[in-house]
Amino acid sequence: MTRAAWHVATVAEVRDETPTARRLTLEVPTWPGNEAGAHLDLRLTAPDGYQATRSYSIASSGDGTRVVLAVAEVPEGEVSPFLVHDLRAGDQLEVHGPLGAYFVWRPGGAAAGAEASPLRPVQLIGAGSGVVPLVAMAAAHDEGADATPFRLLYSVRTPADVFFADELRAFAEAPAPTRLGLDLVYTRDAPAGAARPPGRLTPDLVAELAWPVEQRPRIFICGPTPFVEAVAGWLVAAGHAPEAIRTERFGGA
Amino acid sequence: MSFITRGFSGRSRDRDERLPPGQTLVEDWPVLSAGPTPDVSTDEWRFEVRTESGRHEWSWDEMQALGVEDVTVDIHCVTHWSKLGMAWRGVPLDRIFEEVETSHDYVMAHSYGGYTTNVPLDELLDGQAWIAFEADGEPLDPEHGGPARLLVPHLYFWKSAKWIRGLVTMPTDDPGFWEQNGYHLHGDPWTEERYW
Predict the structure, then answer these.
(1) In A51-84, which positions are buried (b, 16+ CB within 10 angstroms) versus exposed (e)?
(2) Does A176 contact B at CB distance below 8 Å?
Protein backbone atom coordinates (compact mmCIF):
# COMPACT_ATOMS: atom_id res chain seq x y z
CA MET A 1 0.00 0.00 0.00
CA THR A 2 1.13 3.52 -0.74
CA ARG A 3 2.17 5.41 2.33
CA ALA A 4 -0.18 8.31 2.96
CA ALA A 5 1.27 11.82 3.15
CA TRP A 6 0.25 15.48 2.95
CA HIS A 7 0.05 16.95 -0.54
CA VAL A 8 -0.62 20.42 -1.88
CA ALA A 9 -3.64 20.46 -4.17
CA THR A 10 -4.76 23.11 -6.63
CA VAL A 11 -8.41 23.28 -7.58
CA ALA A 12 -8.54 22.59 -11.34
CA GLU A 13 -12.30 22.76 -11.76
CA VAL A 14 -15.48 23.19 -9.76
CA ARG A 15 -18.97 22.43 -11.00
CA ASP A 16 -22.40 21.86 -9.52
CA GLU A 17 -23.03 18.20 -8.90
CA THR A 18 -26.57 18.52 -7.51
CA PRO A 19 -28.47 21.51 -6.10
CA THR A 20 -26.69 20.93 -2.76
CA ALA A 21 -23.36 19.42 -3.76
CA ARG A 22 -20.34 20.39 -5.80
CA ARG A 23 -17.80 18.39 -7.74
CA LEU A 24 -14.20 19.43 -7.07
CA THR A 25 -11.46 18.33 -9.41
CA LEU A 26 -8.07 18.73 -7.76
CA GLU A 27 -4.66 18.69 -9.40
CA VAL A 28 -2.21 17.08 -6.97
CA PRO A 29 1.20 16.83 -8.64
CA THR A 30 2.63 14.57 -5.91
CA TRP A 31 -0.43 12.31 -5.59
CA PRO A 32 0.71 8.65 -5.66
CA GLY A 33 -2.59 7.40 -7.08
CA ASN A 34 -5.37 5.70 -5.17
CA GLU A 35 -7.54 2.63 -5.19
CA ALA A 36 -11.23 2.78 -6.03
CA GLY A 37 -13.14 3.50 -2.81
CA ALA A 38 -10.31 5.20 -0.90
CA HIS A 39 -10.73 8.49 0.92
CA LEU A 40 -8.58 11.43 1.92
CA ASP A 41 -8.36 14.10 4.59
CA LEU A 42 -8.79 17.64 3.32
CA ARG A 43 -7.31 20.53 5.33
CA LEU A 44 -8.08 24.23 5.13
CA THR A 45 -5.96 26.88 6.82
CA ALA A 46 -7.22 30.38 7.73
CA PRO A 47 -5.00 33.49 7.73
CA ASP A 48 -4.52 33.28 11.51
CA GLY A 49 -3.35 29.67 11.29
CA TYR A 50 -6.65 28.10 12.30
CA GLN A 51 -7.11 24.76 10.54
CA ALA A 52 -10.06 22.50 9.87
CA THR A 53 -9.76 18.95 8.54
CA ARG A 54 -12.48 16.66 7.18
CA SER A 55 -12.52 13.26 5.47
CA TYR A 56 -13.99 12.82 1.97
CA SER A 57 -14.36 9.80 -0.26
CA ILE A 58 -12.63 9.99 -3.64
CA ALA A 59 -14.71 9.55 -6.80
CA SER A 60 -11.67 8.80 -8.98
CA SER A 61 -8.98 6.13 -8.87
CA GLY A 62 -5.81 5.03 -10.62
CA ASP A 63 -2.37 6.49 -11.13
CA GLY A 64 -3.25 10.02 -12.26
CA THR A 65 -2.69 13.28 -10.40
CA ARG A 66 -6.30 14.43 -10.86
CA VAL A 67 -8.38 13.70 -7.78
CA VAL A 68 -12.15 14.09 -7.99
CA LEU A 69 -14.35 14.75 -4.93
CA ALA A 70 -18.06 15.46 -4.69
CA VAL A 71 -18.90 17.38 -1.55
CA ALA A 72 -22.43 17.61 -0.19
CA GLU A 73 -23.20 20.68 1.87
CA VAL A 74 -23.81 19.92 5.52
CA PRO A 75 -26.08 22.72 6.74
CA GLU A 76 -24.42 24.57 9.64
CA GLY A 77 -21.14 22.90 8.69
CA GLU A 78 -17.82 24.67 8.92
CA VAL A 79 -16.00 23.16 5.94
CA SER A 80 -18.52 21.85 3.42
CA PRO A 81 -20.37 25.17 2.89
CA PHE A 82 -17.00 26.78 2.09
CA LEU A 83 -16.12 24.00 -0.36
CA VAL A 84 -19.56 24.10 -1.99
CA HIS A 85 -20.01 27.88 -2.24
CA ASP A 86 -16.65 29.66 -2.01
CA LEU A 87 -13.90 27.47 -3.42
CA ARG A 88 -12.95 28.22 -7.02
CA ALA A 89 -10.47 27.10 -9.65
CA GLY A 90 -6.89 28.06 -8.80
CA ASP A 91 -7.40 27.94 -5.03
CA GLN A 92 -5.03 25.78 -3.02
CA LEU A 93 -5.63 23.46 -0.11
CA GLU A 94 -4.00 20.39 1.39
CA VAL A 95 -4.96 16.74 1.17
CA HIS A 96 -3.64 13.74 3.10
CA GLY A 97 -3.92 10.33 1.58
CA PRO A 98 -4.76 8.05 0.02
CA LEU A 99 -6.48 6.50 3.05
CA GLY A 100 -8.31 3.24 3.60
CA ALA A 101 -7.38 -0.14 2.23
CA TYR A 102 -10.58 -1.98 3.17
CA PHE A 103 -13.53 -0.23 1.55
CA VAL A 104 -11.87 -0.55 -1.87
CA TRP A 105 -12.48 -2.61 -4.97
CA ARG A 106 -9.56 -3.90 -6.97
CA PRO A 107 -9.99 -4.89 -10.61
CA GLY A 108 -9.58 -8.59 -11.24
CA GLY A 109 -12.56 -9.68 -9.22
CA ALA A 110 -11.19 -9.60 -5.70
CA ALA A 111 -12.11 -7.17 -2.99
CA ALA A 112 -9.08 -5.90 -1.10
CA GLY A 113 -7.57 -8.57 1.09
CA ALA A 114 -9.73 -11.33 -0.34
CA GLU A 115 -8.73 -14.21 -2.55
CA ALA A 116 -9.25 -13.73 -6.26
CA SER A 117 -12.58 -15.16 -7.31
CA PRO A 118 -13.60 -13.56 -10.58
CA LEU A 119 -17.01 -15.18 -10.68
CA ARG A 120 -18.34 -13.53 -7.55
CA PRO A 121 -20.37 -10.52 -8.62
CA VAL A 122 -20.16 -7.13 -6.94
CA GLN A 123 -23.16 -5.33 -5.52
CA LEU A 124 -22.80 -1.65 -4.76
CA ILE A 125 -25.50 -0.02 -2.61
CA GLY A 126 -25.43 3.70 -1.93
CA ALA A 127 -27.62 6.51 -0.66
CA GLY A 128 -27.26 10.19 -1.49
CA SER A 129 -23.65 11.39 -1.49
CA GLY A 130 -22.66 7.93 -0.22
CA VAL A 131 -22.47 6.91 -3.84
CA VAL A 132 -19.12 8.72 -4.28
CA PRO A 133 -16.73 5.83 -3.45
CA LEU A 134 -19.05 3.46 -5.34
CA VAL A 135 -18.77 5.68 -8.43
CA ALA A 136 -14.99 5.25 -8.19
CA MET A 137 -15.46 1.47 -8.15
CA ALA A 138 -17.91 1.52 -11.06
CA ALA A 139 -15.55 3.76 -13.03
CA ALA A 140 -12.55 1.50 -12.36
CA HIS A 141 -14.64 -1.47 -13.45
CA ASP A 142 -15.67 0.34 -16.63
CA GLU A 143 -12.23 1.71 -17.50
CA GLY A 144 -10.57 -1.64 -16.86
CA ALA A 145 -13.16 -3.45 -19.02
CA ASP A 146 -13.36 -5.80 -16.04
CA ALA A 147 -15.74 -8.71 -16.53
CA THR A 148 -16.80 -9.00 -12.89
CA PRO A 149 -20.60 -8.64 -12.91
CA PHE A 150 -21.34 -5.26 -11.30
CA ARG A 151 -24.57 -3.76 -10.03
CA LEU A 152 -25.33 -0.48 -8.31
CA LEU A 153 -28.47 0.09 -6.28
CA TYR A 154 -28.69 3.83 -5.63
CA SER A 155 -31.22 5.40 -3.29
CA VAL A 156 -31.70 9.09 -3.94
CA ARG A 157 -34.37 11.69 -3.16
CA THR A 158 -35.12 13.09 -6.61
CA PRO A 159 -33.66 12.88 -10.14
CA ALA A 160 -31.85 16.20 -9.55
CA ASP A 161 -30.03 14.70 -6.55
CA VAL A 162 -28.28 11.94 -8.51
CA PHE A 163 -24.49 12.29 -8.23
CA PHE A 164 -22.45 11.52 -11.38
CA ALA A 165 -25.66 10.95 -13.35
CA ASP A 166 -24.04 11.12 -16.80
CA GLU A 167 -21.16 8.86 -15.83
CA LEU A 168 -23.44 6.27 -14.28
CA ARG A 169 -25.69 6.28 -17.36
CA ALA A 170 -22.64 5.72 -19.55
CA PHE A 171 -21.43 2.81 -17.40
CA ALA A 172 -24.93 1.30 -17.63
CA GLU A 173 -24.82 1.54 -21.43
CA ALA A 174 -21.34 0.01 -21.82
CA PRO A 175 -20.93 -3.20 -23.86
CA ALA A 176 -22.20 -6.33 -22.17
CA PRO A 177 -19.30 -7.84 -20.25
CA THR A 178 -18.52 -4.64 -18.37
CA ARG A 179 -21.98 -3.09 -18.31
CA LEU A 180 -23.09 -1.76 -14.92
CA GLY A 181 -26.50 -2.91 -13.76
CA LEU A 182 -27.96 0.37 -12.50
CA ASP A 183 -31.07 0.60 -10.33
CA LEU A 184 -32.13 4.02 -9.10
CA VAL A 185 -34.64 4.10 -6.29
CA TYR A 186 -36.18 7.55 -5.77
CA THR A 187 -37.44 8.25 -2.29
CA ARG A 188 -39.19 11.60 -2.88
CA ASP A 189 -39.84 12.28 -6.59
CA ALA A 190 -39.44 9.81 -9.40
CA PRO A 191 -39.08 10.86 -13.04
CA ALA A 192 -41.75 10.03 -15.59
CA GLY A 193 -41.35 6.46 -16.71
CA ALA A 194 -39.51 5.34 -13.56
CA ALA A 195 -39.67 1.65 -12.76
CA ARG A 196 -41.62 2.28 -9.54
CA PRO A 197 -43.29 5.09 -7.62
CA PRO A 198 -41.16 7.06 -5.16
CA GLY A 199 -40.58 5.40 -1.82
CA ARG A 200 -37.90 4.24 0.56
CA LEU A 201 -35.93 1.08 0.05
CA THR A 202 -37.50 -1.99 1.62
CA PRO A 203 -36.11 -5.46 2.33
CA ASP A 204 -38.20 -6.82 -0.55
CA LEU A 205 -36.89 -4.22 -2.97
CA VAL A 206 -33.29 -4.88 -1.96
CA ALA A 207 -33.86 -8.62 -2.40
CA GLU A 208 -35.35 -7.95 -5.83
CA LEU A 209 -32.66 -5.61 -7.10
CA ALA A 210 -29.45 -7.01 -5.53
CA TRP A 211 -27.54 -10.11 -6.59
CA PRO A 212 -29.12 -13.15 -4.89
CA VAL A 213 -27.48 -14.93 -1.97
CA GLU A 214 -26.63 -17.98 -4.13
CA GLN A 215 -24.30 -15.84 -6.26
CA ARG A 216 -22.30 -14.90 -3.14
CA PRO A 217 -21.86 -11.25 -4.14
CA ARG A 218 -19.27 -9.00 -2.56
CA ILE A 219 -21.28 -6.07 -1.25
CA PHE A 220 -20.21 -2.47 -0.63
CA ILE A 221 -22.68 -0.19 1.15
CA CYS A 222 -22.16 3.53 1.73
CA GLY A 223 -24.53 6.16 3.04
CA PRO A 224 -25.93 7.78 6.17
CA THR A 225 -25.70 5.56 9.24
CA PRO A 226 -29.42 4.65 9.49
CA PHE A 227 -29.46 3.64 5.80
CA VAL A 228 -26.36 1.46 6.11
CA GLU A 229 -27.56 -0.10 9.37
CA ALA A 230 -30.92 -0.99 7.83
CA VAL A 231 -29.68 -2.34 4.50
CA ALA A 232 -26.77 -4.32 5.97
CA GLY A 233 -29.16 -5.84 8.51
CA TRP A 234 -31.63 -6.87 5.79
CA LEU A 235 -28.88 -8.47 3.72
CA VAL A 236 -27.57 -10.49 6.67
CA ALA A 237 -31.13 -11.54 7.54
CA ALA A 238 -31.61 -12.63 3.92
CA GLY A 239 -28.61 -14.94 4.21
CA HIS A 240 -25.68 -12.92 2.89
CA ALA A 241 -22.46 -13.63 4.81
CA PRO A 242 -21.56 -10.69 7.11
CA GLU A 243 -17.92 -10.93 5.98
CA ALA A 244 -19.01 -10.36 2.36
CA ILE A 245 -20.44 -6.97 3.30
CA ARG A 246 -18.22 -3.91 3.60
CA THR A 247 -19.68 -0.68 4.86
CA GLU A 248 -18.90 2.99 5.09
CA ARG A 249 -21.17 5.21 7.16
CA PHE A 250 -21.49 8.89 7.79
CA GLY A 251 -23.34 10.78 10.49
CA GLY A 252 -24.69 9.88 13.88
CA ALA A 253 -27.14 7.35 15.17
CA MET B 1 4.29 23.33 5.94
CA SER B 2 0.85 24.81 5.72
CA PHE B 3 -0.37 27.80 3.78
CA ILE B 4 -3.59 29.76 3.65
CA THR B 5 -6.56 28.68 1.59
CA ARG B 6 -8.04 31.81 0.03
CA GLY B 7 -11.26 32.93 1.65
CA PHE B 8 -11.35 30.38 4.46
CA SER B 9 -11.84 31.79 7.92
CA GLY B 10 -13.39 28.88 9.81
CA ARG B 11 -15.48 29.28 12.86
CA SER B 12 -14.46 28.04 16.27
CA ARG B 13 -11.67 30.25 17.54
CA ASP B 14 -12.26 29.41 21.18
CA ARG B 15 -10.57 26.09 20.92
CA ASP B 16 -11.34 23.79 23.81
CA GLU B 17 -8.08 22.66 25.38
CA ARG B 18 -9.47 19.17 25.70
CA LEU B 19 -9.56 18.90 21.90
CA PRO B 20 -6.46 17.24 20.38
CA PRO B 21 -4.96 18.68 17.16
CA GLY B 22 -6.97 18.14 13.99
CA GLN B 23 -10.17 17.32 15.87
CA THR B 24 -13.59 18.96 15.69
CA LEU B 25 -16.17 18.90 18.45
CA VAL B 26 -19.43 17.07 17.66
CA GLU B 27 -22.64 16.88 19.65
CA ASP B 28 -24.10 13.82 17.91
CA TRP B 29 -22.32 10.49 17.88
CA PRO B 30 -21.13 9.34 14.45
CA VAL B 31 -20.96 5.61 13.69
CA LEU B 32 -18.03 3.97 11.94
CA SER B 33 -17.97 0.24 11.33
CA ALA B 34 -16.36 -1.82 8.58
CA GLY B 35 -19.29 -4.20 8.17
CA PRO B 36 -22.76 -5.12 9.35
CA THR B 37 -23.68 -4.64 13.00
CA PRO B 38 -23.66 -7.99 14.85
CA ASP B 39 -26.66 -8.90 16.99
CA VAL B 40 -25.37 -10.19 20.34
CA SER B 41 -27.64 -10.73 23.36
CA THR B 42 -26.36 -10.44 26.91
CA ASP B 43 -27.48 -14.06 27.49
CA GLU B 44 -25.10 -15.40 24.88
CA TRP B 45 -22.40 -12.79 25.46
CA ARG B 46 -19.12 -14.19 26.82
CA PHE B 47 -15.82 -12.45 27.43
CA GLU B 48 -12.60 -14.41 27.41
CA VAL B 49 -8.94 -13.66 27.98
CA ARG B 50 -6.39 -16.04 26.52
CA THR B 51 -2.75 -15.96 27.56
CA GLU B 52 0.30 -18.14 27.05
CA SER B 53 -0.77 -20.13 30.10
CA GLY B 54 -4.51 -20.52 29.75
CA ARG B 55 -7.98 -19.20 29.22
CA HIS B 56 -10.40 -17.27 31.45
CA GLU B 57 -14.05 -16.66 30.70
CA TRP B 58 -16.78 -14.44 32.13
CA SER B 59 -20.52 -14.40 31.44
CA TRP B 60 -22.43 -11.11 31.41
CA ASP B 61 -23.36 -11.44 35.09
CA GLU B 62 -19.89 -12.56 36.11
CA MET B 63 -18.44 -9.51 34.36
CA GLN B 64 -20.79 -7.13 36.20
CA ALA B 65 -19.89 -8.81 39.48
CA LEU B 66 -16.22 -7.83 39.02
CA GLY B 67 -17.20 -4.28 39.90
CA VAL B 68 -18.74 -1.53 37.83
CA GLU B 69 -17.41 2.05 37.62
CA ASP B 70 -18.83 5.30 36.31
CA VAL B 71 -16.34 7.40 34.39
CA THR B 72 -16.52 10.62 32.40
CA VAL B 73 -14.08 10.73 29.50
CA ASP B 74 -13.46 12.41 26.13
CA ILE B 75 -13.41 10.29 22.97
CA HIS B 76 -11.51 11.05 19.78
CA CYS B 77 -12.16 9.43 16.41
CA VAL B 78 -9.44 9.34 13.76
CA THR B 79 -11.99 10.75 11.28
CA HIS B 80 -11.52 14.10 13.07
CA TRP B 81 -14.44 14.28 15.49
CA SER B 82 -14.32 14.31 19.27
CA LYS B 83 -17.00 14.12 21.94
CA LEU B 84 -16.15 15.63 25.29
CA GLY B 85 -17.30 14.71 28.76
CA MET B 86 -19.15 11.50 27.91
CA ALA B 87 -20.49 9.50 30.84
CA TRP B 88 -19.65 5.81 30.57
CA ARG B 89 -20.28 2.80 32.79
CA GLY B 90 -18.22 -0.36 32.73
CA VAL B 91 -15.78 -2.74 34.38
CA PRO B 92 -12.15 -1.59 34.53
CA LEU B 93 -9.68 -3.93 32.87
CA ASP B 94 -7.69 -3.82 36.13
CA ARG B 95 -10.37 -6.04 37.70
CA ILE B 96 -10.12 -8.53 34.87
CA PHE B 97 -6.33 -8.69 34.96
CA GLU B 98 -6.33 -9.25 38.72
CA GLU B 99 -7.38 -12.76 37.73
CA VAL B 100 -4.95 -13.17 34.81
CA GLU B 101 -1.20 -13.84 34.76
CA THR B 102 0.83 -13.11 31.64
CA SER B 103 4.36 -12.12 30.71
CA HIS B 104 3.15 -10.74 27.37
CA ASP B 105 3.26 -6.97 26.76
CA TYR B 106 0.50 -6.65 24.13
CA VAL B 107 -3.05 -7.78 23.55
CA MET B 108 -5.24 -8.27 20.51
CA ALA B 109 -8.85 -7.33 21.20
CA HIS B 110 -11.34 -9.55 19.34
CA SER B 111 -14.94 -8.68 18.58
CA TYR B 112 -18.11 -10.50 17.62
CA GLY B 113 -18.16 -10.04 13.84
CA GLY B 114 -14.41 -10.58 13.48
CA TYR B 115 -12.96 -7.11 14.16
CA THR B 116 -9.57 -6.95 15.87
CA THR B 117 -7.35 -4.21 17.25
CA ASN B 118 -3.98 -4.29 19.03
CA VAL B 119 -3.16 -2.40 22.24
CA PRO B 120 -0.16 -2.48 24.61
CA LEU B 121 -1.25 -4.21 27.82
CA ASP B 122 0.08 -1.48 30.11
CA GLU B 123 -2.22 1.00 28.32
CA LEU B 124 -5.24 -1.02 29.36
CA LEU B 125 -4.37 -1.00 33.07
CA ASP B 126 -4.21 1.62 35.86
CA GLY B 127 -7.67 3.01 35.18
CA GLN B 128 -7.13 3.57 31.46
CA ALA B 129 -9.61 1.10 29.95
CA TRP B 130 -12.99 -0.52 30.59
CA ILE B 131 -15.40 -3.11 29.25
CA ALA B 132 -18.19 -0.58 28.81
CA PHE B 133 -21.89 -1.26 28.43
CA GLU B 134 -23.57 2.10 29.05
CA ALA B 135 -22.97 5.53 27.54
CA ASP B 136 -24.73 8.74 28.58
CA GLY B 137 -26.99 6.79 30.88
CA GLU B 138 -28.31 4.34 28.29
CA PRO B 139 -27.33 0.78 27.39
CA LEU B 140 -24.98 0.88 24.41
CA ASP B 141 -26.86 0.67 21.11
CA PRO B 142 -25.71 -2.16 18.84
CA GLU B 143 -24.35 0.29 16.25
CA HIS B 144 -22.21 1.84 18.98
CA GLY B 145 -20.89 -1.57 20.03
CA GLY B 146 -23.56 -2.92 22.36
CA PRO B 147 -23.96 -4.94 24.39
CA ALA B 148 -20.35 -4.20 25.40
CA ARG B 149 -17.33 -2.53 23.86
CA LEU B 150 -13.78 -1.93 24.91
CA LEU B 151 -13.28 1.69 26.03
CA VAL B 152 -9.73 3.04 25.75
CA PRO B 153 -10.40 6.78 25.59
CA HIS B 154 -6.79 7.96 25.55
CA LEU B 155 -6.29 6.33 22.12
CA TYR B 156 -8.18 7.00 18.87
CA PHE B 157 -11.57 5.41 19.11
CA TRP B 158 -10.98 2.56 16.62
CA LYS B 159 -8.99 1.00 19.50
CA SER B 160 -12.19 0.90 21.57
CA ALA B 161 -13.38 -2.28 19.87
CA LYS B 162 -17.16 -2.60 19.52
CA TRP B 163 -18.93 -5.89 20.34
CA ILE B 164 -15.95 -7.00 22.38
CA ARG B 165 -15.70 -10.72 23.05
CA GLY B 166 -12.17 -11.18 24.29
CA LEU B 167 -8.50 -10.34 24.55
CA VAL B 168 -5.59 -12.52 23.46
CA THR B 169 -2.22 -11.58 24.92
CA MET B 170 0.77 -11.56 22.58
CA PRO B 171 4.53 -11.09 22.94
CA THR B 172 4.78 -8.65 20.01
CA ASP B 173 2.65 -5.74 18.81
CA ASP B 174 0.94 -7.42 15.86
CA PRO B 175 -1.44 -5.19 13.83
CA GLY B 176 -5.21 -5.58 14.10
CA PHE B 177 -7.85 -4.85 11.48
CA TRP B 178 -7.51 -1.13 10.79
CA GLU B 179 -3.82 -1.27 11.65
CA GLN B 180 -3.38 -3.66 8.71
CA ASN B 181 -5.44 -1.30 6.57
CA GLY B 182 -3.30 1.79 6.93
CA TYR B 183 -3.95 3.05 10.46
CA HIS B 184 -1.32 3.63 13.12
CA LEU B 185 -0.16 0.76 15.33
CA HIS B 186 -0.59 2.86 18.49
CA GLY B 187 -3.04 5.72 17.84
CA ASP B 188 -2.32 8.57 20.30
CA PRO B 189 -4.64 11.49 19.37
CA TRP B 190 -2.39 14.09 21.05
CA THR B 191 0.52 13.31 18.72
CA GLU B 192 -1.82 12.56 15.79
CA GLU B 193 -0.77 8.95 15.36
CA ARG B 194 -3.45 8.50 12.70
CA TYR B 195 -1.83 6.61 9.85
CA TRP B 196 1.42 4.82 9.15
Answers:
(1) ebbbbbbbbbbeeeeebbbbbbbbeebbbbebbb
(2) no
